[in-house]
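Request: Show me your protein:
***
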Amino acid sequence: MPIAARTRAFAEPLAQDAPAGPAAPAPESERREERLSLAGLSWTERTTYHALVEAAEAGLPCPTNIDIEMLCGYNSCSMGPVMVRRLERKGFIRVERFQRFRIVEIVASGKRTARSASMHVDRPHVPKGARTPRPTDRKPYRQGRD
C-alpha cells in the first residue's frame, strides 16, 4: 500500500469522529491551566508552588522564607526568596511585597494568601539602594535649614 493511501486511511476515521461545526472555546480557567504547566518546574519550584497554593486556598499567610527553605531542604537563607522570585518570573504567581511580609496571588486560581497577623503597616517594600525622600522632603518645618 502506498504511503499516501495509508495516511488517508488513518485520517478518515478521525475526520468522521470530529464534531460538526466549530469547537467551543475553552473557559478562561482551563486556558490558564494549559499555559501554566508544572512540568517545566524543578522539584523545589513545584514544592514551593504547592506550599503557596495550599496557603492561599486555606486562607493562611504566605509561608516565610525559612519555611520554604525547610520544605525544599536548603541550608542557605537566601533560597526562599529566590524560589518565590523564580515562580514570579515564570508567571505562576504575583507577589505584593511589604517591609517584612508578602502577599502572593496564585495566577491559575486567582486566590491570595492572607495578611500576616503581625503586619500592622502598609508600607511597600523599598529595595536596597533605591532613592528615598530626603528628610527635608518629609519634614516641611525643616525647609529653611541646610
About this structure: The first strand starts at residue 93 and ends at 97. Residues 52 and 63 are 7 Å apart (CA to CA). The longest helix spans residues 43-58. The chain has six helices and two strands.
